[in-house]
Amino acid sequence: MSNDNRMIIDGEEVSFQTGETVLEVARRQGSFVPTLCYDERLDPYGSCRLCVVEVEGRRLPASSCTLKAEPGMDIRTGSDSIRKMQTTLVEMVLSENPDDECPRCRDIGTCEVHELADHFDVGRERFLGEISNASKDDSNPFLLRDYDRCISCYRCVRICDEVEADHAITMTGRGWNKGIATAFDGGLMDSDCTLCGQCIYTCPTGALADKKMVGQGEIPGEVEVTRSVCPYCGTGCSINLHSRDGKMIGVTPVLDGPVNEGALCVKGQFGFDFVNSKDRLTRPLIRKNGELTPVSWDEALDYTAQKLQSVLDDHGPKAFYAIASGRAPGEGAYMLQKFTRAVMNSNQIDNCSRG
Amino acid sequence: MSNSIPEIEDSKMMLCVGTNMTECHPIIAVRVKKAVRKGAKLYVVDPRKIPLTEYADGHLPLKLGSDVALFNAMAKVIIDEGLADMDYINERTEGFEELKAHLEPFTPEYAEGISGVPAELIRECAIEYASAESAGIYYTLGITEHICGVSNVQSLCNLALITGNLGKKSAGVNPLRGQNNIQGAGDCGALPNNYPGFQQVEDPVSQAKFEKAWGAPMDPKKGITKIAALDHAVDGRIKAMWICGENTLVTDPDVKHTTKALESLDFLIVQDMFLTDTAKLADVVFPAAAFTEVDGFFTNSDRRVQRIRKAADPPGKSQPDWWIISNVAKRMKTLVHFDYANSEEVFDELASLSPIYAGLTYDRIEKGDLSWPVPDREHPGTPVLHEGEFLNGKGKLQLLDYVPPSENPDEEYPYYLTTGRRLPTYHTNTMTGRSGGFRILVPNEWLEVHPADADRLGLDDGDWARIRSRRGDVVTRVAITRTSPRGTVFMSFAFPEEVMTNFVTNPDVDPITETPEFKVAAVSIEKVEAPTGLGAEQALRADPEEPGVV
Which residues of chain B have a CB within 8 Å of the CB of A320? Predict the structure, then answer.
C-alpha cells in the first residue's frame, strides 16, 4: 500500500486500497453509514441515498457506495445535517409500508428497514400516504411476495442477475406504478425463476420472505445460526443453519462461502426440512420373527457384533462387504473402512460412486 | 476436479460435456454463466438440448455414447490445424507420435457419421478449444456412466494434454461430483483398492504403515467393487453386508438383480435416516443422525475439505455414523483402537494417516479455504493440480477406440433411453421429497419425448406410456419436448415408489471402474391407458411379471 492511499474519515486518517469505495472504508473504520440498496455481493447502485456523506470541498453530499475513495479525501459521515437527511429518507420509505406487523420481523429477524426505523426512532406517521397494493398472490411453495412492503431498491432484481445469473425478474412501470415482475408478470413458477430464493435474503424489507420460516415464530427460544455445508450435490456451498430450540427452521447462504459466495439453488435453500421429517428413524431395529422391532442400542450393537464375528469366524473375511455413504460426513466413511480392514481383515469396501 | 470452482469464472473457453449443470450443479453453472458474460466461449456437448445450451456458442448434440469418436476427431483437428502445444507435449507428455498416427482415421466426417454432430461444428469446437488462452473441460455422469466411461474420460484428457490445458489456472479436466461427500468418501479410503489418501492397498509399504497404525494385519489383495459384491451376494460368497446411507435397491441398475442380491444375504445391516426400500430388507437397522445434527466434514468436487456443524438435536436415539460403527467394533474380538470421544479425534487420525490431509485440522477447515493435497500445517492448499509436473512423471496420451453402447435400438426396442436428475428432485428424492414444497414443483415422474417420436407413437402431452427394456418395464406420464432429440427419451429416477426407472436401465459396466451404463438402454414405448384410481399418494410400481400393478 503506498503512502498516497490515505484519507480522512470523521477526523481520523485512514488508509485504503485503490478501488475501494468510501462506504467500504468508512464501515471498516467503524463509522455508522446506513444503507438499504447496498449488498456487498452486488455492484453499487446508489438509489436509496441513505449512505450519503459530506465530502470536504463539495457543495452537495454524495452517496458513499458509489464514491471511490481518493487520496486526501476528507469525509464526514455523521453530521447533524446528514443524520437529518437519513432520518427523513427512512420516514419516507416507511410511509409506503403498511403499518401492520411485518411477518419477517416477527418470525425471522428484524428486517433492515425496521432496524433503521428503530435506530432513528421514527415511524410512518409523518408522511402518511398511499400503499401500493402491489402484492402478488403467488402459488409457489417457497417465496412470499408482499410488494406492499417493497421499497424499490431492486436488490432482488440485481441478485437474480448478478449473483445467480438467472435474470428471471425485472423492474416494470415508472413512478408510483413501478414494481417487480417476471416476464409476462405471472407467477414465479411460470417464469424462468428457479426458486433459488436468493432474492429473499437480500431483500431489506418484508416484501420477500421465506414461506417456510414465516410462521415458525411460535417456537420458543432465540434463533441460533450455525455455519455448515449444503448436503446436496458436490458443489459444496456454504450455508447457515437456522435453528430454534434444537429444531431446524431454515437456511441462509453464507456470504463469504468460498464456492458459492452467497449464492444457493432451490435445493440448498429450501430442501433442508427432511431432517424434521416425521418418518425419521429414531431407534435401532432388529428383525424378530420377520418384523423389524425397536430395541435398545446395547441389544442392537451386541447382536450385530456377534453376527459379524460369526460371519468372520465361519466364512472368513471375504464373506463381509461394506458400502460407505457419499452423503454422510467423512468420519463415518473413515470408520467403516477402518472397521472393514482392521476388524474384518479385508478390503471389501466401496462407496456409492459407481451408481 | 483438477482446478477449483471459483477459477471457472476466468476461463476463456468452457467445454461442458454430459453435464446438465444448471439442474444438477446450479451454483457451478453460475460461474459458467458469469464467464460467458465476461466473454468466454461455451460449447455444450450433450444429446439433450439442456438449459445450458441457451448460453452456449455451440451445442454438439451427439448420439448417446459416441464421445470417443467425437473427441478423437477434435484431437485430430487440433493437431492437423497446427494448434497443438508442442512445447507442453514434448516436455510433459509421452506417446504423441503414436496418438497422431492412431487418430488418422478419426476425421470430423467419420465422427459425424458416428455421433451425428456436423463435421463443421466439430472442427469449430476443436479450434475454439485449442485457441483459447485457458480452456476448461467440465463433465459429469454423462461421460462416466457408460461401458466406455474410462475411455471417455481419457479422450477428454488427451484434448487437455495436447493443448497444455492441464496444470494451468482456469483450465483443466474437471469432473463435477454428484454428491456432497462422494469425494470425501473416496478420500477416506472407502474404496476396494485404496487406503485413506489414495494409498494403494497392494503396495507393501502402505500395508506396513496401516498395520502399524491400527495394530492389525492388512489384507494384501484389493477388494471387489460394489457392483461385483452384489453378484457375490447372489452366489453366496458374501454373507453379510453393511450399507451406510445408500438406497442401493433403488439406485442400482436392474432392480430385480439387486433385490435378489440383498435377499440372498444371511445378514444385512442398513444405517440410514429413513426406512428406505433397502432398509426394509435389513436384519438390523441403525438410525443415523443427519448432517445438521453432527460435527464432521464434507469434501466437495474441487477437493475442498469443509467443516459441518451440529445445529439441531438428532431425533430419538439416532447417533452419528462414526459412533455407531466404532461401538460395534468395540464389541467384537479386536484390540484395534475404536475408543473416540468425538468426531474431531476421528478426523485427526485420518489426517495423520493420509498425506493429502496431513496439514488439516478442524481449525484449518473452518471456512473451507483449502483444497487437498495439504501436506503440512503451513501449506496453503492446492487449488490447481499438476502445476509444473505430473505426480507420475509424464502425462501418457491414450490411444482410444470408439466402442458403441452395449445396447442399441433395434426393431424390438427402437428408442434410446437416457436417465438423469431434474433440478428440484435430487437423486431418489429421499431428501427433496421429504422437504416441504418440492412435490409441488415436481409431483411425479414423466418421460420426455421428441414431438416427431410422439407423433409416430400416437402420444399426446399427459398421456401414459409403457417403457420396456430387456430387463423390465415401467409405466409413466409423457411430456412432449424438444429437449430430447429424436429417437432418444429421458427419465429421472426420483419417484421409485411410483416409477422404478432402474427396472429398465442397463447393468452392463465399464470393465475398469465397473460403473454401469445408466445413460444408455434400448427401449420400446407404447401408449397405455392411465392407471385406474391413481392418486398422488398411491404407489404404482410396475413389475415385469405384473405390469402396472397398483
Answer: 238-242
Please state, in angstroms and rounded to a whole number, the distance separating the CA atoms of residues A270 and A143. 10
CB contact under 8 A, B435 and A273: yes
Q: Is the pLDDT of residue B543 over 60?
A: no
Q: Does the residue A338 lie in any domain?
A: yes
Provide, rounded to the nearest whole percent, the portion of chain B with pLDDT above 70: 97
Decide if A258 and B192 are in contact by the 8 Å CB cutoff: no
For residues A245 and A140, membership in a common domain is answered with no
C-beta of residue A159 within 8 angstroms of C-beta of residue A219: no
pTM (2 d.p.):
0.91
Taking residues B369-375, report their average pLDDT.
96
User: What distance in Å separates the CA atoms of residue A348 and residue B314, rounded to the nearest whole number?
Assistant: 30
Topology (CATH level 3) of domain B6-176: Dimethylsulfoxide Reductase; domain 2 (3.40.228)
Structure-block grid coordinates of residue A30: 467503524
Domain ranges of chain B: 6-176, 178-220+288-377, 415-528
| For testing contact with chain B, the best of A240, A331, A346, A353 (most B CBs within 10 A) | A331
Cis peptide before A258 (omega within 30 of 0): no
Q: Considering the domain B178-220+288-377 in this protein, what is its CATH number? A: 3.40.50.740
Are B275 and A279 within 8 A, CB to CB? yes
Question: What's the pLDDT at A147?
Answer: 87
Q: Tell me the shortest Cα–Cα distance from A330 to chain B, in angstroms.
A: 6
Asked if residue A326 is part of any domain, the answer here is yes
User: Are B283 and A307 in contact (CB < 8 Å)?
Assistant: yes
Assigned domain for A84 exists: no
SS3 A244: strand
B547 has pLDDT over 70: no
**Enclosing domain of residue A224:** 219-276
pLDDT tens per residue across span A208-236 = 998 888 877 677 778 899 999 999 999 99
pLDDT band at A3 (very low <50, low <70, confident <90, very high): low
**CB-CB under 8 Å, B311 with A228:** yes
Residue B286 contacts residue B269 (beta carbons within 8 Å): yes
- Contact (CB<8Å) B223/A232: no
The confidence score (pLDDT) of residue B393 equals 86
> By percentage, how much of chain B surpasses pLDDT 90?
85
CB-based contact A236 B321, cutoff 8 Å: no
Same-domain check for residues A170 and A266: no
When pLDDT is averaged across residues A270-284 and rounded to a whole number, the result is 94
From residue B167, alpha-carbon distances to B7, B128, B208, B385 in Å are 13, 19, 33, 6
Strands B267-272 and A52-55: unpaired
| Percent of chain A surpassing pLDDT 70 | 98
Q: Is the pLDDT higher at B415 or at A137?
A: B415
**Residues of chain B positioned with their CB less than 8 A from the CB of A271:** 426, 431-432, 435, 438
Residues of A in contact with B430 (CB under 8 A): 274
**CATH number of the domain that residue A268 is part of:** 2.20.25.90
Residue type, B508: D
Does residue A23 contact residue A17 with C-beta atoms inside 8 Å?
no
In terms of CATH architecture, what is B415-528? Answer: Beta Barrel (2.40)
